[in-house]
Amino acid sequence: FHACYFASFCRGRMNVIIPMGGLGSRFRKKGYNVPKPMVRVVGRPMIFWLLDNLSLEGQDTVWFGLSKELRDEHVFKQQVSNLLKGKVGVKFIDLEFDTRGAAETLFAILSQMDERELSRKTISLDCDTFYVTDVLGKFRQVAPGEGAIFVFEDAGSAPIYSYTVLDESGSAVRIAEKLKISNHANTGAYAFPSAKSLKDSCEKVIDSSVGNVGEYYTSSVVQQLLKDGIIVRGVHVDDFHCLGTPEQLDAFLALVADGSFIAPRRRFCFDLDNTLVTAPETPGDYTSVKPMHDNIAIVQQLHAAGQTIIIHTARRMRTHGGNVGAVIADIGAITIQTLKDFNIPYDELYFGKPYADVYVDDLAVNALDDPARDIGWVGSKAARSKDMEAVSNMPSRSSTTILIQDNTVMKCSNSGDLEGEIFFYKSMPESIRKYFPAYLHANTTQDERSARLDMSLVHGVPFSQLITHMVLTRSRLLMLISLLRTVHDCKCSSSAEAKKAMYLNYAVKTRERLDQYSESSIMTERASAAAKSIVGLLSRYESDDKGTWVDVIHGNPVLSNCLIDGRNEIKLIDMKGRLGKVLSLGGDENYDWAKILQSLYGYDFYVRGKVPTDQEESYLADLRECFFGEICDREDSKISRDDLKGLTAGLFLSLPPCHGEGSTVGQLSVDRACRLMEGSD
């Protein structure tokens, strides 16, 4: 009984070995000054990309073989321990010499294992490759006593990997390094029935190949396993990324930059002066700073890829003796204007960085060296210029400025822009307050020209990020629809004046916007014909009284104003609170649905200067069918598809004055309005 229990217990555990004895010389030649596992990739060390994506279980042990450089010069052990502490076992094996290949490195690690550890299933993973596919889960499914080799299809002619020949049952019959014996290339993940079997094979390879460094590959160890009669299953993997050379790293970063791979959202904090802008050309006059284009391009690209941008500045801290309030009063407006003028996007802006002559920080990157390389971002100047052009086509829709301090958002603008939102916060029914940020405070200047609104900070991801990365699911869309219905179902008093103003957002508003760019080059013959049809439809919508009054609408639920937090709860921001010049919670519920539909027709792509690809258009069309099914196709639906498309076309037609007539947003919006009226959408 005890022997059977011991064998079963050990089969449930797994050794995960990550050798890191290589020198990383190719990265050194490119100017990287850290060992390869610690090279940052979108702000996070390479090794953590591997660890973050492993489905480790509590009984597993992760073994790290550390080079002397990695052990002595970097706090690697502490960082890894903090990540894995309490989750799995962690063992660090110091490699006191430069091993002559993976087999020798593995053997050095295996030699530190006891009998119990040697009996466990064992997998070896390269430190420079991470897997989206669950390779550990696939190995757990392999029968006891068998190994596994993870392969992908390589149709190229250059033999740059190791390759495996598989028989009809999917078992490996031969493996060779840098020799194209099949199209089954190996990913670098090799699994063994036990650490003991791996150790024995390593020893045989090392003993039979002394002086022949080329034979110390892990593939040679697997070939030895086959010679010993052990079955090794071929397991196909189609979702992994190798970052082992600077060229492979750059290729992966390009995927992140263009949205093909969605990297986890991380926080990047940039200083302002001498990082994004120069020191003032006129001492003390911060209006005389100049942009530092390369670093601004990095910020723009990171922000466009969904990363969080924080700007922290020590401006005037020495002048005002550390009084942050005085600093903001003195230099706040100029700083915000500078960010706007130089098209520097940000999510959070902090004043009050202590003034110092030298800053020492374990996460710091020298802004004047090669920040793109050191944070792990696209380094090509040509790539930066291309992406910068796309990002620069995202003009701000508002003169509103936002400051964040601790967990408070301070929104400042002219009183007219904020009046409706402040009214909404003060007047909304108690039953729906939980769906919005907490209202803290609002005030207006004595001359009533400016206003400020303070509310709680929502820690969430905008739906606009979800949709542009094609991760907004039907389920989440239905959650948003359900929440808006809850808002629409609220009952409260509404003035007769407000009800009379219900249609002011349609034909009247659209005509006013059209007048602002009627002479523009984007108002082509096609656009003029569409505009005439749209205004006619909106006028009939009003004259036929097709609107549905509800006591509460959001008024502007484009997806950038809908956030989902870590608890999968939705919060709504930037409510309208007015119809024309009339303050009102209520309005036509179909206006909210048209705003949602506007996003489902590509608005959030447009504001990023991007034309949706065919794949993205297909994705949006699928979401629209889900939306129409809920809003227009039910027995209790109050609006037809054609009418809702017409309202949405009016919204698109109204956008150019908000974003710039010649902007990408303006051009794409007018084109979408035309397509909606032509019936091609």
In short:
With 681 residues, the protein is of the alpha/beta class.
Describe the fold and architecture:
GO terms for molecular function: nucleotidyltransferase activity. Keywords: Nucleotidyltransferase, Transferase. It comes from Palpitomonas bilix. InterPro entries: GlmU-like, HAD-like_sf, HAD_sf, NTP_transferase_dom, Nucleotide-diphossugar_trans. Pfam families: NTP_transferase. This protein is α/β, with parallel strands linked by helices. It folds into four domains: 1-248, Spore Coat Polysaccharide Biosynthesis Protein SpsA, Chain A (Alpha-Beta Complex); 265-375, Rossmann fold (3-Layer(aba) Sandwich); 399-457, Phosphorylase Kinase, domain 1 (2-Layer Sandwich); 460-678, Aminoglycoside 3'-phosphotransferase, Chain: A, domain 2 (Alpha-Beta Complex). Helices cover 40% and strands 18% of the residues. The chain is built from 27 helices and 27 strands. The strands form nine sheets. It has a seven-stranded mixed beta sheet, sandwiched between helices. The protein has a four-stranded antiparallel beta sheet with strand order 17-18-20-19, covered by helices on one side. A three-stranded parallel beta sheet has the order 14-15-16. Helix 21 (525-543) packs across helix 25 (641-653) and helix 25 (641-653) packs antiparallel against helix 27 (664-678).
Layout of secondary structure:
Layout: H1 2-12, E1 14-20, H2 25-29, E2 40-41, E3 44-45, H3 46-52, E4 61-66, H4 68-73, H5 76-84, E5 89-94, H6 102-110, H7 115-118, E6 121-125, E7 129-131, H8 135-140, E8 147-153, E9 162-166, E10 172-177, E11 184-192, H9 195-208, H10 218-227, E12 232-236, E13 240-242, H11 246-257, E14 267-271, H12 293-304, E15 308-313, H13 324-341, E16 348-351, H14 371-375, H15 381-392, E17 401-405, E18 408-414, H16 415-427, E19 439-444, E20 450-456, E21 460-462, H17 463-468, H18 474-488, H19 496-500, H20 507-517, H21 525-543, E22 549-550, E23 562-565, E24 570-572, E25 578-579, E26 582-583, E27 587-588, H22 589-600, H23 603-606, H24 614-631, H25 641-653, H26 656-659, H27 664-678
Parallel strand pairs: 1-4, 1-6, 4-5, 8-12, 14-15, 15-16
Antiparallel strand pairs: 2-3, 6-11, 7-13, 8-11, 9-10, 17-18, 18-20, 19-20, 21-23, 22-27, 23-24, 25-26
